[in-house]
Structures are given as structure tokens and as C-alpha cells.
């Protein structure tokens, strides 16, 4: 569990499922994520090993951060992050706050580089990653089929531990 000024980042629990399912399956979240609509059982598997964002003031679940091995890298200690917020909570600085805490945690745990992938067109996410110090490494064209069969170009970003410390 991690805490920020306004958030608690923790593993998802069974009791989070009902409220969180609407966020996860919303058109806003699905648009820029390579996910399909899921049911409660699938969602529990997703959130139990990753992090939900719980707002401290009202204990409402407002978002998600996923951490997995960066499959594009070999032989280095790496992670790849994914994230999303409830549309009503976007543009309030919650994800920036959460990712700052998560990045510090990952680098403290020995991760050398954190990657993130963002579909072309997701300008808010690109802006957030750049604000956090990530570097755009390149774009894979015609790379990922997202929700609704739309095929996206996939932008690759990374942040080295030594860049975060500066």
C-alpha cells in the first residue's frame, strides 16, 4: 500500500468490484486501452495483483495502476505501467500524484527502467508521461487492436531510474 496527499494506492479487493466495474468497462477507459469489456471475476483477477486508487476523503475507488514486466526489454530489471481513471476524476491531478508515488516505489524496489505504452491520440496520457520525465522512444505503427476493433499506433515511453532521481 502507498499513500499520497489525497490517495491510497492498494491492491484491489472483492468489495471494490461492484463500484469499479463501471469505470473499467466505460467507453472512456476502453477507448485507449487494449481491453475488452470484462465481468466481475475477470476484474477481480486484474485488480487483486495491481493497484486501485482510493480517494482518502470519501474512500471512493477512482482509478487503476497496473504493473507488469516490460516484455520489450531483456536482461534488465524493468516494469511496464498501465493506468486509467474514472472520466469524472480526470484532469484533477490524481493520476500524476499516484504515478509519482508509484514510480518512487518501483525505483526503490530496484527497478532500473519503467516503460509505458500509449495509443496515438491519447494526448492527455502523453502529456502526463512527459511531465513525469518519460522519454518517447518511438512509435510502433499499426501495432495494437483496441476495443471495438480499432487498430492503433502504439507510442513507447520510458523513464530510467537515474532520470527520476535528478
Report how far the terminal alpha carbons are from each other.
Answer: 25 Å
**Which residues form runs of ≥5 with pLDDT under 50?**
none
Q: What's the total number of strands?
A: 8
Judged by helices, strands and strand pairing, the structural class is: alpha+beta
Mean of residue pLDDT values? 92
Write structural notes for this entry:
This protein is α+β, with helices and mostly antiparallel strands and 166 residues long. The chain has a single domain (2-165), classed as Aminopeptidase (3-Layer(aba) Sandwich). The chain is built from six helices and eight strands; from the N terminus they run E-E-H-H-H-E-E-E-H-E-H-E-E-H. The radius of gyration is 15 Å and the shape is globular.
Task: Describe how the helices and strands are arranged.
Blueprint: E1 2-3, E2 7-11, H1 17-24, H2 27-31, H3 40-48, E3 51-55, E4 61-68, E5 78-85, H4 94-108, E6 113-119, H5 123-131, E7 135-145, E8 151-160, H6 161-165
Parallel strand pairs: 5-6
Antiparallel strand pairs: 1-2, 2-3, 3-4, 4-5, 6-8, 7-8
Write a compact overview of the structure shown.
This protein has 166 residues and is of the alpha+beta class.
Supply database-style keywords.
8 strands; 166 residues; Aminopeptidase; 34% strand
